[in-house]
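Annotators were shown the component list below and the corresponding predicted structure, then asked to write short factual statements about the assembly.
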Amino acid sequence: MAVGTDSARVDAVDKVTGLALYPADAVPKDALHAVVVFTNQPHARLVSMDLSKTVASPGVVTVVTAADVPVNEYGLTLFDQPVFIGLDDTGRSSVPCDVSRWEADHLVVVVAESLSEARRASALIDTEWEPLPMASDVASAKADEILVHPGSSTNTYHTLQIRKGDAVLGMEAADVIIEGTYELPHQEHAYLQVEAATAWIDEQDRVTVETSGQWVHEDREQIAHALAVDEEEVRVRYAAIGGAFGGKEDMSLQIVMAVTARKLGALGINRSVHCGWSREESIVGHHKRHRATVTARLGATSEGFITAVEADVWLDAGAYNYTSNKVLGNLHLSVAGAYNVPNARIDSRAIYTHSVPGGAFRGFGGPQGAFVAESQMNKLASKLGMDPMELRQRNALTDLSDGITQSGLPEGVGVTRVIDACVERVPPSEELPEYPPFSPIASLPAKAEQLRQGRGYAVGMKNVGFSFGFPEACEADVVFHGDADEERPNRVELFHSAAEVGQGVHTALTQMVAYAVGLDFESVDGFFSDTSTGGDSGSASASRLTFMAGNSVLGAVEEAEKAWADGARPAAGHFRYKPPMTEALDPETGEGQPNFCYGYMAQAVDLTVDVGTGHIRVDRVVSVHDVGKAIHPQMLRGQIEGAIAQAHGYTLSEQLVVENGRIQNPRLSQYLIPGIGDVPARVDCVILEAADPLGPWGARGVSEMPYITYAPAVTAALYDAAGIWINKFPLTPSVVLEHLASAEI
Amino acid sequence: MIPASFDYVKASSADEAISLISEHGDEAKLLAGGHSLIPMMKLRLAVPSVLVDIAGVRDLSHVEDRGDHIAIGALAKHRSIETSDLLIAQCPMLAHVASKVGDPQVRHRGTIGGSLAHSDPASDLPAAVLALGGSLIVQGPNGQREIAATDFFTGYFESALAEDEMLTEVKVPKSPGTNWNYQKFNRRAQDWAIVGVAAAQVDGAMQVSLVNMGSTPLRATAVETALASGASAAEAADEAANGTEAPTDLNASPEYRAHLARVLTKRALEASGVE
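Structure shown to annotators:
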């Protein structure tokens, strides 16, 4: 099966027929059941905890607390979070653990014979808390009067800056300056499959956790750190994964269930233990897309050439870092857009607050940055009376640009390409087509003048792979099988840890191996996402797996071919692919080469707004992507359509309400993700294939790109329709109506 | 999201159901389609200790022509109302409103009797029956009585039904033609209405009701009065929120709901032929 064709997904039959086992399905019959009890305290000191009634409650097997965690800390990039809040930790953690900083900090795990017994016993925990003052948002945390983490004099714990040229002179040289303050909201991942895990001690005495995540080796590293054991003593494997989107990149049940399994083992109880979160526990219990505030200025000449960019970014990290420092880096770079900016001053800060942690979510800071950059460009076009895409074309980054980090860009810059293709498909001068009226909404104006149509554009780029000098690599193993006298192998085994989060990576890798070896798709057997069989793949994130894992399997096939040629039967090949090294940015100027590959995108959005109610209907999205090479075009379109549906919720309907560190609407009946009647009526995917010089068959990445440009394209279309700029979202009907009213429309 | 424990009994006739609820008093709830009651039980907003399942009761699913009105059995499903030729011809507004309830799965399970007896101010069908000036037949241990829709909805999820009574039939006047409209505004397709407006001309007079503008479905009496004294659609619609106490929640403020009531009333009236 050639790359570039649509094979059937390797997991299609199992997922459609219900045979695929997700983490909450594969529970052994004799498993014990665990409940993770949250502190329910956004900021309070634990004064006392009495577990005697819980322990004595019927069916209870054990209770796991801070005392059971050898090193009571975790965090993907900073160890700043206790595994458990408690009074009796081992003291081997850098984080004081008697203070809860988040309502979903873990307090204890109650293990019982049944879930109902575990729940009943959980309700009997007797705690006394001393409430502490709250700094629950950026405004209150900035003052540093209340510190979220002791041991530092400020909540602003991570800062980045860019100094390029002279921003003051650049602004002075501008004929036009656009200024705006943008409020970016939280978003909940809302994956279909909520967190669940089963843990046990396996026959080799390894603590084994079966769950769903995005990087088995990272999970293993975090577990081993907390347990203070060698990584080889821990095994992590993934069941079928029902969506992740960055929300499963961090730890949820991994460490606490490993600790629980180990405690059961120490008690001589040789049984599995299972825990599955409810939707409410999931929404309260994991991080969100960051909320942020960005104030930006954009200076340009009257011909539309950018003279300077200034920006101040405040990223609300919440109570713990998660990956906020890395998300901040992406936001920091993307706030200047995909344009030549001769002069820039950008100051970006991540700040701790007593609120839900922000973390990885499709786009990883890119959507927030693009909303600012593209809103500024759309406003500039409007102010200059210029075609918005012509304005972008004049400023577009090319292979000759030095970029905002003054280091040049990886070869093959595609900004002008996606702009051209978008304009060809959706000319700005074209009359808007007549779209059918909004069918699922029963409230339609009797007179058409209450409906206004508009069109908006946005353009962007997103890095593929890890940035800023993070050691980036991906391993693969293949084994060729066949008889000694056969010229070619008749079967290949592929061992890989790439997480199949729904995006189709297992199919793509199988397809790549089959094509590279010259076999049928069916002759490749994949074994995935198990630290006991596969090497370290890195995570299913940063739009990186097609590029990274693709290169890793190509390398492994090449190694196996050599062994095969030498007569080895079976012939094994192992390969660790490493892309060009990236760099951390200079702390003063922001100079450096942060990335090795980018994907490029442009979008046009047509919408209709009902000015009587404020309701917006998106009629059509044209989404243009330079993907290098479409390995599996059908799944590629699936990624584009799915990303747009998710971005549609972010832009129009999803509104997480957090008050004083507590989520007020942790249910899908109150947190409105769009349904099939709400998503854009039509998405046209335009795929460009300008090969990346390093990508497998030229492939780049696409998983995040369609998401990133959607919100600013929608707000630009709303301006085109009704003459109002809205610098925040979601664009709920009442918000739109308020703006319409203040503009007297 | 797990209901409290309860007992379950299945009734095979209306009489049996009534005797079962008489026996258990306020501990018991009737279960028909379950699309309102079960979610409330899961959220523990309703904690009945006995569920009397009437889904299997025969002879209460009819849609019948009774001369000047149409009689609908309480167990008629939304889907059968939506597709009833008789209703489409003689009471098209009701058929249309039924088609706007939830999604197809909901409409194949939910019943008109359940929807009305539940008395949710955000529901579509109670407001439709109210705008039509319908009435409800209820049966208790001592026989039947008829309650006008205007007297039926007494409070937030409260109706004129006594503990030992069961709603058996809904009567709506024949109101054929095109002088009707239903406006339903929601933030997300297939959700409950943020605000809805039902308008229908019955015996020559325009009758209007409001969804989710108070603790019960409401007749927009100020609008009707204005229309009766010759107001235009726009003038009458300005009165739509008068005297209402719209709820506030994460979806909408009372002010936004009042605005919607006015806008949607104007649209409903204009679409119903009011100039």
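Statements collected:
1. The mean pLDDT of chain B is 95.
2. DSSP finds twelve helices and 14 strands in chain B.
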